[in-house]
């Protein structure tokens, strides 16, 4: 078994974000669930886009954002996700490679267009997401290259992948390869509605295969269907080795067996757009983990990366995170 | 002759901007002319994009930005420009219509893709632009609907259109229609290199057909090939009825016959990206002009709109300019 050459590989839905500012009535008038990630079909995608104000296009996708964050921190990172060979697919591919992410998943040459996520940001900086999965639906086990997957210390996957059966199979194949190579497997629960859709499967997966779990407070409570946060953390500790649970302005809790490490949130001058906060927390944590840093520092790197991304529009870092981490004496 | 129903119609190259932050050496190492708009072919477009860091896509195009600014101020505005029926063409079309711009130019169904402008923003907030004209090359006289053009009080055109002979013909056709309908014709010189390419033609055009000219200091000096700004303004006054000359942080000068009105620049907290400053100045000025406001107020509206756009990334307003103008007691 050769030693890993990449720090992290992330797998997820390859999506271009279409971001716009809207007011609260826009959400209610157009039946858009606030704060959630809702899957939509092509007809609804056309409808929502037709209603939306002028927008900005930025490459996104939860695990894609995490990969970009790890690269920005100076990590060696790869990505697996499916675009089509269209203009938005080119945009997504460019943005991954330009930041140094190894991204070689073959784009689909027919079928649905590259995925878009219509992200509506309200004045309170909350984001409401409507995702047309498009070409992401084509991701399958054929896209999982065993040599590539085995080359990373940590494999990181989105819970969102569970929305497509073929992507779920790809997810399981990758997890198996990573385990067999002696590497770590991590998962983000992605969204409390996503947890609701696949609760039993997620629980089984966490107990058996997941070394590091990422969740926010809502997702964790949804997973165990309980309101008691501390009790949920205790249950989680009995089910997986290591977990990082984010709690917005309350920071995060790292659950490591019986140990509970509290990490404060980083101060943010102006909260602009919460899109990507969880993705960047995972980026900071995983980068630190892959470098063998202590868990508190991993959590601080996560908080720092999350704070950077919520201070501007869009879900990927606008400044080099490595320099930022250095200025905070974190690396 | 029916009375105009639109305030302004703008005609220009319909372009999606691809914006990224770069450092100074990036420009020199890749032979990119700082501060200029350089036309590039498809091969160079691929090369530059391949070299660029992760980017953001935002609808742009000089006259398109001006139309968006006028709409944001509450003006009734139309736009003529050519995209292809591809994803970036959809993005451009959506962003125009979503802000209320009447945009009905038929997209081309074959030939080159929708135009892209690679905009590289250096730490000093200067932008260096490389434009692949793509589908813009297909704009011709057939795209000029006489009834539509005649419906606007003011016609506004980019000097950039002169880079394509068929677009130039379309430009002349539109100017003639507007004149015959008793409306005003305005022009922006666009870029000092553009002036250099078409100096004699621009001079002829200004003397004969242009009622309102927009230029910056460099463009004006290039037009008359003289360094004396005041002397250039005097010459300009002898050649066209009304002109607004922008001078970056020194504000603008409105040249109205023998009258010279100085308008101060608006204060900007943080200069982020100068892309679109001239376009938004024209938007503010033309909106005020179309509402019959005095020239100083027109200039102030221009300064205000320019200040908004240079305080953030991207060439179109991020906030409603009508509210902003009201808060400054300008409308």
Descriptive notes:
The structure is a homodimer of 331-residue chains. The first copy, chain A, has 331 residues and is of the alpha/beta class. Chain A has a single domain (6-327), classed as UDP-N-acetylmuramoyl-L-alanine:D-glutamate ligase, CATH 3.40.1190.20. Chain A has 13 helices and 14 strands. In chain A, the strands form two sheets. The first copy, chain A, has a nine-stranded mixed β-sheet, with helices on both faces. In chain A, helix 11 (277-290) runs antiparallel to helix 12 (295-310). The longest helix of chain A is centred in the middle third of the chain and has 16 residues, at 165-180. Chain A is globular. The mean pLDDT of chain A is 96. Chains A and B meet through strand 4 and helix 4 of A and strand 4 and helix 4 of B.
Identify the quaternary structure here.
Answer: homodimer
Identify the most extensive interface between protein chains.
Answer: A-B, 25 and 25 residues
Number of strands of chain A: 14
What is the total number of structural domains of chain A?
Answer: 1
Q: Identify low-pLDDT runs of chain A.
A: none
Helix/strand/pairing category of chain A: alpha/beta
Q: In percent, how helical is the residue content of chain A?
A: 40-55%
CATH class of chain A: Alpha Beta
Output the helix-strand order of chain A.
Answer: EEHEHEHEHEEEHEHEHHEHHEEEHHH
Query: Average pLDDT value of chain A?
Result: 96
């Amino acid at each position: 078994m050769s030693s890993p050459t990449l720090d992290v590989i992330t797998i997820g839905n390859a999506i271009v974000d279409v971001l716009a500012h809207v007011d609260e009535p826009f959400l209610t008038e157009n039946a858009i669930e606030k704060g959630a990630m809702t899957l939509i079909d092509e007809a609804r995608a056309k409808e929502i886009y037709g209603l939306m104000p002028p927008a900005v296009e930025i490459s996104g996708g939860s695990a894609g954002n995490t990969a970009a964050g790890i690269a920005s921190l100076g990590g060696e990172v790869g990505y697996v996700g499916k675009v089509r060979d269209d203009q938005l697919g080119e945009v997504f591919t460019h943005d991954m490679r330009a930041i140094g992410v190894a991204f070689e998943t073959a784009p689909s040459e027919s079928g649905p267009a590259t995925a878009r996520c219509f992200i509506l940001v309200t004045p309170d900086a909350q984001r409401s997401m409507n995702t047309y999965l498009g070409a992401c639906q084509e991701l399958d086990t054929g896209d999982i290259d065993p040599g590539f997957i085995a080359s990373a210390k940590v494999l990181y996957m989105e819970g969102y992948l569970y929305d497509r059966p073929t992507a779920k199979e790809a997810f399981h194949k990758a997890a198996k390869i990573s385990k067999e190579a002696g590497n770590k497997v991590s998962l983000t629960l992605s969204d409390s509605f996503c947890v609701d859709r696949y609760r039993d499967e997620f629980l089984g997966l966490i107990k058996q295969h997941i070394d590091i779990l990422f969740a926010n407070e809502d997702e964790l409570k949804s997973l165990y269907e309980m309101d008691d946060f501390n009790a949920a953390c205790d249950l989680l500790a009995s089910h997986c080795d290591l977990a990082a649970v984010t709690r917005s302005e309350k920071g995060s809790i790292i659950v490591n067996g019986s140990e509970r490490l509290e990490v404060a949130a980083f101060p943010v001058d102006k909260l602009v757009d919460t899109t990507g906060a969880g993705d960047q927390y995972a980026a900071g944590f995983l980068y630190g983990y892959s470098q063998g840093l202590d868990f508190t520092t991993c959590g601080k790197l996560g908080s720092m990366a999350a704070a950077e991304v919520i201070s501007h529009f869009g879900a990927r870092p606008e400044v080099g995170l490595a320099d930022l981490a250095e200025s905070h004496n974190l690396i």
